[in-house]
Amino acid sequence: MESLPHCETLLLEKQGPTLFVTINRPDVRNAMSLQMVAELSTVFSEIESDLQIRAVVVRGSGGHFCAGGDIKDMAGARSQKSAEGEADPFYRLNRAFGQMIQQVNESSKVVIAITEGAVMGGGFGLACVSDVALAGPTSKFGMPETSLGVIPAQIAPFVVERIGLTQARRLALLGLRINADEACRLGIVHQAAESENELEEMLTQVLDRIRHCAPVATAETKALLHRVGHEAMSGLLDSAAEKFAEAIRGSEGAEGTMAFMQKRPPAWAESNE
């Protein structure tokens, strides 16, 4: 990717093999508008085939991750009338968000969510499709939809995948709000920091570990993990064995083996470009 796409709701910055995506609507606690959904989708589409980008860090500006859907967009959809043969505007708005978080979920990149302040509704869903989620001390997580008379339509399946049906039921049906420590216990986030400095140190350690892992092997591993539970085990293991054979014969497998024998870091661990 020669240049980053222009975005109005996101701040984009590439540092070495990492793309930092900052949700930038602090006046509304980074509530997710249709424009933001479209811009996030565009960013993830454009980086998918960019082998130089290995990780994406998603965070929010102004002390909040994302407070959920934008009420203005909801009001706008309410005022729209569906033309004959067109989908309901509420359906279009909701489904566009679901397509975006599915895209983030299935991205070949390692997606890291840095959660602070409000992590609600759609923001909660976005955190649940990250590969690594880190929480700051101010984080508050929740699925408040039922308390607003609506349903967590697009995020609920991803929450169930993240923490299991039992805990998802409790959070969704009671509209609970929980802190970072409980989110960590439930498996929504992997680590909870006690300070902003500790949060940044955690992120640095995660990015360092990503640098030590081969990019193609990492992408193939993520794809394999997503297939578990959706395919018959025997066929899945047959396919995985084929992928293993390709990997060990490929350039990364050769370099990784040689680096191990020569007791040196592999080439991808030394790359800062």
Automatic annotation (TrEMBL):
Protein name as it appears in the record: Enoyl-CoA hydratase
Any one GO BP annotation for this protein: isoprenoid catabolic process
Residues in coiled coil: none
An example Gene Ontology molecular-function term: catalytic activity
InterPro entries (UniProt xref): ClpP/crotonase-like_dom_sf (IPR029045), Enoyl-CoA_hydra/iso (IPR001753), Enoyl-CoA_hydra_C (IPR014748), Enoyl-CoA_Hydratase/Isomerase (IPR051683)
Pfam families the UniProt entry points to: ECH_1
Family, as annotated: Belongs to the enoyl-CoA hydratase/isomerase family.
